[in-house]
Amino acid sequence: GSRLEPEERSMEPPAVPEEEEEEEGAVPLSMAPGPVGCQLFGYVGIEAVLDQMKIKTMKTGFEFNIMVVGQSGLGKSTMVNTLFKSKVSRKSSQPGQEERIPKTVQLQSITHVIEEKGVKMKLTVTDTPGFGDQINNENCWDPIIKYINEQYERYLREEILITRKRKIPDTRVHGCVYFVPPTGHWLRPLDLEFMRRLSKIVNVVPVIAKADTLTLEERAEFKQRIQENLKTHAISVYPQEDFDQDSEDRALNDRIREKIPFAVVGADQEHQVNGKRVLGRKTKWGIIEVENPAHCEFPLLQDLLIRSHLQDLKDITHNVHYESYRVRRLNESNQLG
């Protein structure tokens, strides 16, 4: 019996749902003393846990909440439609309304259920029209920060109830895509101040909007400058270095960090190129293919937000940003109590 003990211990982790990571300071299992990974006498079938998790997730579906921030006219709505290959932004869901530039930042959230190969995703897109459009943009980030914190608050309220729902509806913002205007110079004080405040409470992914207005050299220089700006002002955008789990993660994320901010171009029209339908923007001198990595870094953004890091964005939101909000709020209420 005693010889099998370490084995039982090492069989545990897969069954833990991904949300609950081991507390910091806990010894990682591979470092636990004693013989690790002992010999099995035949096939046990532990990896079936993965299928179980998959079936469960497919039944319940999952939520993903994304926020887009930037001045009007940078193509935020178009970008979201391009990301999810469907009309999911506020622009497309309110046809016939003439475009008014709002006088204040109003937040508009639209929820859609997208389904692909039997996987349901409840996608909420929060748009921030009017951000940074005024002459005096003092504190224009307040409504946005307030909104993000309100979602944490809503989740916290559900979580501290004595009888909780089995699945708390998750409206927390998992990622905020920040659109930088393609000036080719430096980040504006507005951008810096906003990202500085925002990166403390949410995963910020900066992108250079309408990047087709810059030449390749300008693009590379602008990128370099933005990276310097972020370093100088100690702004930690997603994927944050502090949260890399291991060297493998670090290597992957370093490759992404080199390329941030992604220079992106959005398009929701299809064009014929060499007999293939491609998403792109038609100009007098040719078609900019949005999903062609040689033309634009949109595929990198799509990979980051959906194909490779969606779960990670959710985990960091839950384990880091929401956690620090929760600690702060509970401390406040304890002091009041």
Automatic annotation (TrEMBL):
<keyword id="KW-0206">Cytoskeleton</keyword>
<feature type="compositionally biased region" description="Basic and acidic residues">
    <location>
        <begin position="1"/>
        <end position="11"/>
    </location>
</feature>
<keyword id="KW-0132">Cell division</keyword>
<keyword id="KW-0131">Cell cycle</keyword>
<dbReference type="InterPro" id="IPR008114">
    <property type="entry name" value="Septin3"/>
</dbReference>
<dbReference type="InterPro" id="IPR030379">
    <property type="entry name" value="G_SEPTIN_dom"/>
</dbReference>
<keyword id="KW-0342">GTP-binding</keyword>
<keyword id="KW-0963">Cytoplasm</keyword>
<dbReference type="GO" id="GO:0051301">
    <property type="term" value="P:cell division"/>
</dbReference>
<feature type="domain" description="Septin-type G">
    <location>
        <begin position="60"/>
        <end position="332"/>
    </location>
</feature>
<dbReference type="GO" id="GO:0005856">
    <property type="term" value="C:cytoskeleton"/>
</dbReference>
<comment type="similarity">
    <text>Belongs to the TRAFAC class TrmE-Era-EngA-EngB-Septin-like GTPase superfamily. Septin GTPase family.</text>
</comment>
<dbReference type="GO" id="GO:0005525">
    <property type="term" value="F:GTP binding"/>
</dbReference>
<dbReference type="Pfam" id="PF00735">
    <property type="entry name" value="Septin"/>
</dbReference>
<feature type="region of interest" description="Disordered">
    <location>
        <begin position="1"/>
        <end position="31"/>
    </location>
</feature>
<dbReference type="InterPro" id="IPR027417">
    <property type="entry name" value="P-loop_NTPase"/>
</dbReference>
<keyword id="KW-0547">Nucleotide-binding</keyword>
<dbReference type="InterPro" id="IPR016491">
    <property type="entry name" value="Septin"/>
</dbReference>
<protein>
    <submittedName>
        <fullName>SEP12 protein</fullName>
    </submittedName>
</protein>
